[in-house]
Amino acid sequence: MGTFLSWNFRGIRSKLQDLKGLINFFNPVCIGLQETLSSNVPLKLRGYNSVRKDTVTGSNHSGGVCILTSNLYPSSTLTLHTSLQAVSVQVYARTLVTVCCVYLPPHDVVRQQDLDTLVDQLPTPFILLGDFNGYSTLWGSDVTKSRGRQIEQLISNVSVCSIMMRKCTSTNLHAPSPVSILHFCRCCI
Q1: Are 184 and 173 in contact (CB under 8 A)?
Q2: pLDDT tens profile 56-74
């Protein structure tokens, strides 16, 4: 089907050249970016369409999400009814698949119902990409915190795994830390 990337971007200006390098190396179908940080910086990349949801200026310089979709694959934006930082597209890569990119700021209170409602809006099969700021021993953290339990619950609520991943690699692009956090993830399905 293709390669899908997810990256906590932490700012368009500082990471644009790195993003271009990833695109040239992986030629992904979609890229989900979290913490784009700025609504006044255009994100135009040759061969890719973008769908963004930016944070309001002055909101502690954090947040924002974007999905970049390769022009080689027909795609359309899927409207989401949510207050969460999330955007979604449907892309045809041998089959029609929904891709949703989410950013949950670490100190925001997020209701389980809001997460469940978001996922309920996604036609199957879907791929959920994002930075959920949820720590759980299920994905390598030393401890499970409340947000991690919410994500565990969200995963258990999804009754059918619609897409089997043949290969998934994750890389921490920052200095090692005692807490496991995915900063970059590549999935080939």
Answers
A1: yes
A2: 655 556 789 999 999 999 9
